[in-house]
Amino acid sequence: VRSLVYLVATSLDGFIAAPDRDFTPLMVGGDHLAGLAEDYPETFPAPAREALGIDAPNRVFDTVLMGARTYQVPGAVPSPYPQLRQVVFSSRAPAVPGDVEVVDGDAVAYVRRLKADGDGGDLWLCGGAHLAGQLYDEIDRLVLKISPVVLGNGLPLFAGVNPRPRTFLPRRQVDYDNGVRVVTYEGA
Length: 188
Ligand SMILES: NC(=O)c1ccc[n+]([C@@H]2O[C@H](COP(=O)([O-])OP(=O)(O)OC[C@H]3O[C@@H](n4cnc5c(N)ncnc54)[C@H](OP(=O)(O)O)[C@@H]3O)[C@@H](O)[C@H]2O)c1
Fold this sequence. Notes:
Elements: E1 4-10, E2 15-17, H1 32-39, H2 46-52, E3 61-67, H3 68-71, E4 85-89, E5 100-103, H4 107-116, E6 122-127, H5 129-134, E7 141-146, E8 155-156, E9 168-175, E10 181-187
Parallel strand pairs: 1-6, 1-7, 3-4, 3-6, 4-5
Antiparallel strand pairs: 2-8, 7-10, 9-10
The structure holds NADP nicotinamide-adenine-dinucleotide phosphate.
């Protein structure tokens, strides 16, 4: 069965962006990028793949799921992850290129259908907080790219979430020289 994996950059205090949705404070450069390019080359957007010379085949994912505001972050290109099946959740029928699918409606039912499809890579939940909140109960694994930064306030990992606590157990942790810690947790 394919897993739904929320792989996301977070601050030390659990925010994925500042209150104004600026996430650049989390985007520290340095050696963790090489580690991520090795483990998850498919999670780099096309311009970054080109700049960093990443052309490795997909390792984990074959699909990326984005909320409309994540798809439309400033500076984003219309087809950010052409190496993946790209799905954007939006009720506004945004203009998208042919290789981006727009879904309006029940995100849980949609993900359950993809999981039931069986074959294929895992499903990358790219964000943001509001899409992650809807898919809270469907998440099988968390990969937190924890930047060495406290934001104090901002957009949490999950927004509008059902408050039922869930347990995730750490399975792998990599500490990079630049202070980024990448921790993989499996849902218990
Ligand atoms: N740190 C990181 O790694 C990271 C990663 C990704 C995002 N981010 C941050 O997160 C921010 C965006 O997060 P967010 O929580 O504000 O927004 P989001 O989850 O990216 O997008 C929310 C929007 O998606 C649409 N949508 C969501 N679920 C839907 C559904 N089931 N059916 C139809 N449409 C649906 C709605 O827009 P419509 O009005 O179009 O319907 C909704 O307003 C970005 O600006 C960025 O700062 C950070």
